[in-house]
Amino acid sequence: MRKLESEIKALMKSETGVKAKERIKEFLDFDSKTEEEWFSELCFCILTANTSAEMGLRVQKKVSAKKFLLLPEKNLALELKKAGSRFYNRRANFICSARKFYGLKELMNSMPKKEKRNFLVKNIKGFGLKEASHFLRNTGNLNYAIIDKHVFNLCVENNLIKGKKQKLNEKNYFTLEKKLEKLAKKLNLLQGELDLFLWYMKTGKILK
Fold first, then answer.
1. What residues contact residue 174 under an 8 Å CB cut-off, 6+ apart?
2. Is residue 186, in this structure, part of any structural domain at all?
3. Residues carrying an active site annotation
4. Of 41, 54, 96, 129, which sits most exposed with the smallest number of CB within 10 A?
5. pLDDT per residue over 124-154, tens digit each?
6. How far apart are CA 73 and CA 92, in angstroms?
C-alpha cells in the first residue's frame, strides 16, 4: 500500500496529474449536458463492458446519440458492427432496453447517492458494479471505485487482496472498494479521481 501511495503521489505532481484534473473537470461539468448526451454516455459504458475503453470511444463517436435512441434494434446492431463493436447484437439489445430509462440525468440528480449505483445495476441490462460506477463517475459522481481488470490486477500486485488466483467477483469488488476508499482519503482524492491514476499505472493512458 505504501509503495502504491508514493507512486500515485508522484503522478499527482506530474503532467499526468494535470491531465487527470482536466478530465475530472469534464466529469463535473457533465451536469450541463443534455439528456441525449447522458444517454450516449450510458451507451458508451455498455459498449466498454468486456472490451476496451478505446473501443467504446471509437464506437460512440461513430454512432450518433440519435441513432442510439431511435434506430430499431437490428439496424442499431448493424451500425455497431460497422463501427467495430464486439458483441454488437447483444449490445444493441442492451441499448434498446435502456431507452425506457431515458431521462437518467433528472433521475440520477434526484436520487440519494447510496441508491444510484444499485438502481443502475438492477435496471440497466449489461451493467454490473464496474459499468454502473463508470457511468456515475463520467457524469460527475466521483464516490465509486471503477474496478476493471487493470485496476484489479494492480490491487493484486500491491497485496490489497490476497492470492494471485483471485477473481473479480462482487465480494472482492466491495472489499477492494473499501480499501481504495481509504487510499483515496490518504491522498485527498475521491474514488473517481484515484481511478484515473490507477488505470494510468497499468495502461499509460488517461481516458474517461
1. none
2. yes
3. 130, 148
4. 54
5. 999 999 999 999 999 999 999 999 988 998 9
6. 6
